[in-house]
Amino acid sequence: MKLISATPSPYARKVRIQLIEKGIPFELVTEVPWNSDTTVPLYNPLEKVPVLLLDDGRAVYESAFILEWIERTHPQPPLMPTDDAAYLEARRFMVLADGICDAGLLLFFERAREPAHQSQPWMARQLRKIEGGLAALERDIGERAFAVGDRLSLADISVAAPLGWLKVRAPDLDWPGRFPGLAAYYERLSQRESFKATVPYAQVLRDKVV
Ligand SMILES: N[C@@H](CCC(=O)N[C@@H](CS)C(=O)NCC(=O)O)C(=O)O
Fold it and tell me: Options 3.40.30.10, 3.30.230.80, 3.40.190.10, 2.30.110.10; which CATH number does 2-73 get?
Protein backbone atom coordinates (compact mmCIF):
# COMPACT_ATOMS: atom_id res chain seq x y z
CA MET A 1 0.00 0.00 0.00
CA LYS A 2 1.24 3.50 -0.88
CA LEU A 3 0.05 6.87 0.33
CA ILE A 4 0.56 9.91 -1.86
CA SER A 5 0.94 12.82 0.50
CA ALA A 6 2.29 16.35 0.79
CA THR A 7 4.34 17.49 3.79
CA PRO A 8 2.03 20.32 4.94
CA SER A 9 -1.27 18.66 3.95
CA PRO A 10 -3.65 18.40 6.92
CA TYR A 11 -5.80 15.94 4.97
CA ALA A 12 -2.88 13.63 4.28
CA ARG A 13 -1.65 13.94 7.85
CA LYS A 14 -4.88 12.42 9.15
CA VAL A 15 -4.34 9.31 7.07
CA ARG A 16 -0.65 9.06 7.94
CA ILE A 17 -1.44 9.18 11.66
CA GLN A 18 -4.20 6.61 11.28
CA LEU A 19 -1.90 4.20 9.40
CA ILE A 20 0.86 4.62 12.00
CA GLU A 21 -1.53 4.19 14.95
CA LYS A 22 -2.85 0.98 13.40
CA GLY A 23 0.63 -0.32 12.61
CA ILE A 24 -0.16 -0.70 8.91
CA PRO A 25 2.97 -0.73 6.75
CA PHE A 26 2.83 1.72 3.84
CA GLU A 27 5.15 3.53 1.48
CA LEU A 28 4.95 7.29 1.78
CA VAL A 29 5.14 9.07 -1.57
CA THR A 30 5.63 12.80 -1.10
CA GLU A 31 4.38 15.07 -3.86
CA VAL A 32 3.68 18.76 -4.37
CA PRO A 33 0.17 18.45 -5.81
CA TRP A 34 0.18 22.10 -6.89
CA ASN A 35 3.17 21.73 -9.22
CA SER A 36 2.58 21.01 -12.90
CA ASP A 37 4.76 17.88 -12.89
CA THR A 38 2.92 16.16 -10.04
CA THR A 39 1.83 12.58 -10.64
CA VAL A 40 -1.32 13.02 -8.54
CA PRO A 41 -3.70 13.46 -11.55
CA LEU A 42 -2.65 10.00 -12.75
CA TYR A 43 -4.37 8.56 -9.70
CA ASN A 44 -6.97 11.13 -8.72
CA PRO A 45 -8.88 13.08 -11.38
CA LEU A 46 -9.63 15.66 -8.69
CA GLU A 47 -5.84 16.21 -8.49
CA LYS A 48 -5.70 16.25 -4.70
CA VAL A 49 -3.76 14.44 -2.02
CA PRO A 50 -4.07 12.24 -0.10
CA VAL A 51 -4.42 9.28 -2.42
CA LEU A 52 -4.22 5.74 -1.09
CA LEU A 53 -2.87 3.34 -3.71
CA LEU A 54 -3.99 -0.19 -3.01
CA ASP A 55 -1.86 -3.22 -3.86
CA ASP A 56 -4.42 -4.24 -6.53
CA GLY A 57 -3.86 -0.93 -8.36
CA ARG A 58 -6.99 0.89 -7.25
CA ALA A 59 -6.73 4.44 -5.96
CA VAL A 60 -8.83 5.73 -3.07
CA TYR A 61 -9.08 9.48 -2.57
CA GLU A 62 -10.87 12.04 -0.37
CA SER A 63 -9.40 11.89 3.11
CA ALA A 64 -12.63 11.21 5.01
CA PHE A 65 -13.33 8.29 2.69
CA ILE A 66 -9.76 6.97 3.03
CA LEU A 67 -10.12 7.06 6.83
CA GLU A 68 -13.33 5.06 6.53
CA TRP A 69 -11.77 2.66 4.03
CA ILE A 70 -8.86 1.93 6.35
CA GLU A 71 -11.13 1.63 9.37
CA ARG A 72 -13.25 -0.95 7.52
CA THR A 73 -10.37 -2.93 6.06
CA HIS A 74 -8.10 -2.77 9.13
CA PRO A 75 -10.47 -2.59 12.09
CA GLN A 76 -7.81 -3.20 14.78
CA PRO A 77 -7.13 -1.23 16.86
CA PRO A 78 -10.41 0.61 16.37
CA LEU A 79 -10.10 4.36 15.98
CA MET A 80 -13.83 5.00 15.93
CA PRO A 81 -16.27 4.39 18.79
CA THR A 82 -18.72 1.56 18.27
CA ASP A 83 -21.52 3.12 20.27
CA ASP A 84 -23.81 5.07 17.88
CA ALA A 85 -23.98 8.27 19.91
CA ALA A 86 -20.20 8.42 20.38
CA TYR A 87 -19.61 7.51 16.73
CA LEU A 88 -21.80 10.36 15.56
CA GLU A 89 -20.15 12.75 18.00
CA ALA A 90 -16.76 11.77 16.57
CA ARG A 91 -18.07 12.36 13.02
CA ARG A 92 -19.35 15.76 14.09
CA PHE A 93 -15.84 16.77 15.18
CA MET A 94 -14.40 15.36 11.97
CA VAL A 95 -16.75 17.42 9.79
CA LEU A 96 -15.92 20.58 11.70
CA ALA A 97 -12.17 19.92 11.52
CA ASP A 98 -12.29 19.30 7.76
CA GLY A 99 -14.26 22.52 7.32
CA ILE A 100 -11.51 24.45 9.11
CA CYS A 101 -8.96 22.88 6.76
CA ASP A 102 -11.05 23.87 3.74
CA ALA A 103 -11.39 27.48 4.89
CA GLY A 104 -7.68 27.53 5.76
CA LEU A 105 -6.67 26.45 2.26
CA LEU A 106 -8.96 29.05 0.68
CA LEU A 107 -7.45 31.75 2.91
CA PHE A 108 -3.92 30.59 2.15
CA PHE A 109 -4.37 30.77 -1.61
CA GLU A 110 -6.17 34.10 -1.48
CA ARG A 111 -3.22 35.45 0.50
CA ALA A 112 -0.90 34.03 -2.15
CA ARG A 113 -2.39 36.31 -4.82
CA GLU A 114 -0.78 39.59 -5.77
CA PRO A 115 -1.95 42.08 -3.11
CA ALA A 116 -3.86 44.09 -5.73
CA HIS A 117 -5.90 40.99 -6.62
CA GLN A 118 -6.67 39.80 -3.11
CA SER A 119 -10.29 39.96 -2.02
CA GLN A 120 -10.58 41.31 1.52
CA PRO A 121 -14.22 40.14 1.93
CA TRP A 122 -13.22 36.63 0.81
CA MET A 123 -10.31 36.50 3.23
CA ALA A 124 -12.45 37.88 6.07
CA ARG A 125 -15.07 35.23 5.32
CA GLN A 126 -12.57 32.36 5.49
CA LEU A 127 -10.96 33.80 8.61
CA ARG A 128 -14.36 33.96 10.30
CA LYS A 129 -14.96 30.28 9.54
CA ILE A 130 -11.54 29.29 10.87
CA GLU A 131 -11.94 31.29 14.04
CA GLY A 132 -15.55 30.17 14.52
CA GLY A 133 -14.45 26.57 14.06
CA LEU A 134 -11.60 26.90 16.53
CA ALA A 135 -13.89 28.54 19.08
CA ALA A 136 -16.38 25.67 18.70
CA LEU A 137 -13.59 23.12 19.20
CA GLU A 138 -12.28 24.99 22.24
CA ARG A 139 -15.76 25.01 23.72
CA ASP A 140 -16.69 21.41 22.89
CA ILE A 141 -13.41 19.70 23.79
CA GLY A 142 -12.89 21.81 26.88
CA GLU A 143 -10.25 20.31 29.14
CA ARG A 144 -10.72 16.73 28.01
CA ALA A 145 -7.76 14.65 26.86
CA PHE A 146 -9.74 13.29 23.90
CA ALA A 147 -12.55 14.74 21.81
CA VAL A 148 -14.78 11.71 22.41
CA GLY A 149 -14.56 9.17 25.21
CA ASP A 150 -11.31 8.25 26.89
CA ARG A 151 -9.15 7.12 24.00
CA LEU A 152 -7.69 8.41 20.77
CA SER A 153 -10.10 8.41 17.84
CA LEU A 154 -10.25 9.75 14.32
CA ALA A 155 -11.95 12.79 15.89
CA ASP A 156 -8.68 13.74 17.64
CA ILE A 157 -6.62 12.97 14.56
CA SER A 158 -8.93 15.12 12.42
CA VAL A 159 -8.99 18.01 14.90
CA ALA A 160 -5.22 18.00 15.23
CA ALA A 161 -4.72 18.23 11.47
CA PRO A 162 -5.88 21.84 10.96
CA LEU A 163 -4.27 22.88 14.26
CA GLY A 164 -0.86 21.73 13.05
CA TRP A 165 -1.40 23.12 9.57
CA LEU A 166 -2.40 26.58 10.83
CA LYS A 167 0.83 26.78 12.82
CA VAL A 168 2.78 26.41 9.58
CA ARG A 169 0.62 28.17 7.00
CA ALA A 170 -1.06 30.89 9.08
CA PRO A 171 1.14 31.44 12.15
CA ASP A 172 -0.05 35.07 12.36
CA LEU A 173 -3.44 33.80 13.59
CA ASP A 174 -1.69 32.62 16.77
CA TRP A 175 -4.41 30.11 17.58
CA PRO A 176 -2.43 28.61 20.53
CA GLY A 177 -2.32 32.04 22.17
CA ARG A 178 -6.01 32.60 21.64
CA PHE A 179 -7.38 29.13 22.39
CA PRO A 180 -5.39 27.85 25.39
CA GLY A 181 -7.57 24.78 25.94
CA LEU A 182 -6.99 23.63 22.38
CA ALA A 183 -3.29 24.43 22.69
CA ALA A 184 -2.96 22.14 25.73
CA TYR A 185 -4.98 19.42 23.97
CA TYR A 186 -2.77 19.64 20.86
CA GLU A 187 0.37 19.63 22.98
CA ARG A 188 -0.72 16.40 24.70
CA LEU A 189 -1.58 14.69 21.41
CA SER A 190 1.74 15.84 19.96
CA GLN A 191 3.58 13.58 22.42
CA ARG A 192 2.41 10.53 20.46
CA GLU A 193 4.94 9.02 18.05
CA SER A 194 2.41 9.16 15.20
CA PHE A 195 2.02 12.89 15.66
CA LYS A 196 5.76 13.50 16.04
CA ALA A 197 6.44 11.58 12.83
CA THR A 198 4.01 13.70 10.83
CA VAL A 199 4.66 17.26 12.01
CA PRO A 200 3.74 19.39 8.98
CA TYR A 201 6.24 21.57 7.20
CA ALA A 202 5.95 23.87 4.23
CA GLN A 203 6.65 22.90 0.64
CA VAL A 204 7.74 25.36 -2.01
CA LEU A 205 5.07 25.74 -4.69
CA ARG A 206 7.13 26.18 -7.83
CA ASP A 207 4.34 26.97 -10.26
CA LYS A 208 1.82 29.75 -10.15
CA VAL A 209 -1.40 28.45 -8.63
CA VAL A 210 -3.54 31.59 -8.33
N1 LIG B 1 -11.49 17.21 0.54
C2 LIG B 1 -10.17 16.74 0.16
C3 LIG B 1 -9.20 17.92 0.20
C4 LIG B 1 -7.80 17.52 -0.22
C5 LIG B 1 -6.96 18.74 -0.62
O6 LIG B 1 -7.49 19.83 -0.84
N7 LIG B 1 -5.65 18.51 -0.72
C8 LIG B 1 -4.77 19.57 -1.18
C9 LIG B 1 -3.46 19.54 -0.45
S10 LIG B 1 -3.67 20.01 1.25
C11 LIG B 1 -4.48 19.33 -2.65
O12 LIG B 1 -3.95 18.30 -3.00
N13 LIG B 1 -4.83 20.30 -3.51
C14 LIG B 1 -4.51 20.29 -4.88
C15 LIG B 1 -5.62 20.88 -5.71
O16 LIG B 1 -6.69 21.22 -5.15
O17 LIG B 1 -5.45 20.98 -6.91
C18 LIG B 1 -9.74 15.64 1.10
O19 LIG B 1 -10.22 15.63 2.25
O20 LIG B 1 -8.96 14.75 0.70
Answer: 3.40.30.10
CATH class of this structure's domain 84-192: mainly alpha
Q: How do the pLDDT tens digits run along the chain, 210 residues long?
A: 999 999 999 999 999 999 999 999 999 999 999 999 999 999 999 999 999 999 999 999 999 999 999 999 999 999 999 999 999 999 999 999 999 999 999 999 999 999 999 999 999 999 999 999 999 999 999 999 999 999 999 999 999 999 999 999 999 999 999 999 999 999 999 999 999 999 999 999 999 999
71 CA to centre of ligand 1 in angstroms: 21
What's at 112, amino acid-wise? Answer: A
Residues 45 and 152: their CA atoms lie apart, in Å, by: 33
Can you tell me the distance from the alpha carbon of 113 to that of 99, in angstroms, rounded to the nearest whole number?
22
- Report field, pTM of the whole predicted structure over 0.90: yes
User: Which residue, by CA, sits nearest to atom 16 of ligand 1?
Assistant: 48
Residues with C-beta less than 6 Å from any ligand 1 atom: 6, 9, 11, 33-34, 47-50, 62-64, 105
Ligand 1 geometric centre to CA of 5 (Å): 10
- The reply to whether domains 2-73 and 84-192 share a CATH topology is no
Whether 173 and 166 have beta carbons less than 8 Å apart is answered as: yes
Cβ–Cβ under 8 Å, residues 189 and 197: no
